[in-house]
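Consider the tokenized backbone below.
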């Protein structure tokens, strides 16, 4: 049995990732900040539900405590929860975006580390973004160059950096960051762009199911490693 936790899994890419990992036989915990949305998603998939708001220390601690009591370990952690934060360019908006997209990774990782250390093949996937790649946002030929999403990009750069730093400080655990591909979800609905969440979830599943000798400290999309 592979025990898996996905944050922000009540919809979008996280929900589809849960669905695909369940097919592969994982025991999947849907982390969701809203209990009703999370319970409905878990019931629809045959997954388990934990209330988990990545911006709330008590919620994160309680969620990992629940998994620890039930399973005694965590094999796969997917940091998927995220917000676009395109509704302002001010301190409160910046705090909310960084709290969710970057600080949330620290909260959940720190709470999960003792359980990940109990796994024979612990793997952490950060659903980051190429909007947080310095290579992409400084290259006029890339779509990320033209995105007016400064807070999102900066918070995803931090998410990728945290993933790389955890890979170095936790050599027994694989930490990889992913650009999942532009996807039609509630996050991108206003732009009317993107492929299906099913397709992007396949890229998450690939990194979530690496062998024990798989890579760590990388930033990838479905085709392999991306420049930083
Ligand atoms: N869509 C794309 O093109 C694209 C491209 C690159 C990267 N990504 C990344 O992919 C990930 C998933 O995004 P998506 O496109 O699937 O968007 P989505 O459908 O809007 O899903 C985002 C998920 O994050 C959850 N979330 C937000 N704040 C949270 C918090 N404080 N605690 C726990 N959960 C929280 C949302 O829960 P609620 O339902 O409660 O709001 C929702 O379940 C994000 O990290 C995003 O940045 C997406």
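A designed sequence for it:
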């Amino acid at each position: 049995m592979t025990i898996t936790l996905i944050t922000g899994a009540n919809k979008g890419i996280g929900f589809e990732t849960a669905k695909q990992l369940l097919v592969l036989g994982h025991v999947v915990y849907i982390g969701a900040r809203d209990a009703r949305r999370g319970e409905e998603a878990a019931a629809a998939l045959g997954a388990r539900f934990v209330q988990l708001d990545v911006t709330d220390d008590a919620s994160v601690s309680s969620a990992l405590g629940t998994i620890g009591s039930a399973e005694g370990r965590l094999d796969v952690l997917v940091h998927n929860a995220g917000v676009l934060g395109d509704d302002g360019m001010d301190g409160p908006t910046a705090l909310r975006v960084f709290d969710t997209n970057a600080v949330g990774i620290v909260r959940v990782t720190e709470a999960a580390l003792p359980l990940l250390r109990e796994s024979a093949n612990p793997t952490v996937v950060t659903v980051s973004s190429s909007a947080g790649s310095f290579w992409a946002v400084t290259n006029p030929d890339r779509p990320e160059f033209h995105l007016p999403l400064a807070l999102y990009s900066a918070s995803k750069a931090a998410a990728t950096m945290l993933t790389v730093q955890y890979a170095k400080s936790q050599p027994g655990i694989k930490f990889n960051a992913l650009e999942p591909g532009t996807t039609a979800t509630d996050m991108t609905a206003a732009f009317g762009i993107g492929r299906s969440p099913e397709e992007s979830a396949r890229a998450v599943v690939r990194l979530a199911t690496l062998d024990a000798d798989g890579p760590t400290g990388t930033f990838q999309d479905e085709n392999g490693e991306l420049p930083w």
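The pocket of NAP is lined by residues 7-8, 10-14, 33-34, 37, 52-55, 80-83, 100, 127, 129, 179-180, 182-183, 185-188, 194 (CB under 6 Å).
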